[in-house]
Write a structure and sequence with these properties.
Metallo-beta-lactamase, Chain A; POD-like_MBL-fold; 12 strands; alpha/beta; Mito_Persulfide_Diox; metal ion binding; 249 residues; six-stranded mixed beta sheet; single chain
Length: 249
């Protein structure tokens, strides 16, 4: 497998490029519209053809590049079927493998951050989206999020994976790239095995997080598979304008 972990600095989002060496087909997990050209350059440099974009959920902090990448490359858009997006070409469901060339990903429905959130497993790698972050987790206070659902998604489903499974998160805000299931079980201050459901409820209730500043643009735009608002203000242009030299993770 060809693998690249790419970083978008405005929303601290990781995009994952997975390529099949035998067929030359590739998938981008959680691509961001402002770094689309970087991703296309990466694909071209590796001699890969983009077959699919694949989002973990309807994002609230950035605009997905799914629609623009389809327009530019002819790729197909895959996203969780539970969200019922009219722009999706393939709805992802748990129990049905997602295949790109010779790569076979296992979709895992992991509600809690949003009700439609999915993580994806490929061999010993878990692309955990916002459900499980390194020493943390996604918030649960919007988009039909649920503290209890997130607890059970992570503790009952993700923590049942082998301890040496590599955890590649949807975001990181401290320049970290990868963890393991064993490390998160042991060290995660929110969802580690020593934390009870009642304690997790208290932790999440006391976060006192601000209202996401881009959510009112991002959610409706992402329900259309990645449409930037036409009335984008100067302060939000960085979320949609193409970045010429975006850092890579």
């Amino acid at each position: 497998m060809i693998f690249r972990q790419l970083f978008e600095p405005v929303s601290s989002t990781y995009t994952y490029l997975l390529g099949c060496e035998d067929t030359g087909q590739a998938v981008l997990i959680d691509p961001v519209v402002s770094t689309m050209d970087r991703d296309l350059d990466e694909l071209a440099g590796l001699g890969l053809k983009l077959a699919f974009t694949l989002d973990t959920h309807i994002h609230a902090d950035h605009i997905t590049a799914a629609l623009e990448l389809k327009r530019k490359t002819g790729c197909r858009i895959a996203s969780p079927a539970i969200d019922k997006l009219a722009c999706t070409d393939l709805g992802i469901e748990e129990g049905t493998p997602f295949e790109v060339g010779g790569l076979q990903l296992t979709p895992l429905h992991t509600p809690g951050h949003t009700d439609g959130h999915f993580a994806y497993r490929l061999g010993d790698r878990l692309f955990s989206g916002d459900a499980l972050l390194i020493d943390g987790c996604g918030r649960t206070d919007f988009q039909n999020g649920s503290v209890d659902d997130l607890f059970h998604s992570v503790r009952g489903k993700l923590f049942s994976l082998p301890d040496d499974s590599l955890v590649y998160p949807g975001h990181d805000y401290h320049d970290r790239r990868v963890s393991t299931i064993a490390q998160e079980k042991r060290r995660n201050p929110r969802l580690g095995e020593a934390v009870s459901l009642e304690q997790f409820r208290t932790i999440m209730a006391e976060l006192d997080l601000p209202y996401p500043k881009f959510i009112d643009h991002a959610v409706p735009g992402n329900r259309q598979c990645g449409v930037c608002p036409s009335d984008l203000s100067e302060s939000y242009r960085q979320y949609c304008e193409q970045a010429e030299h975006s850092p890579q993770g």
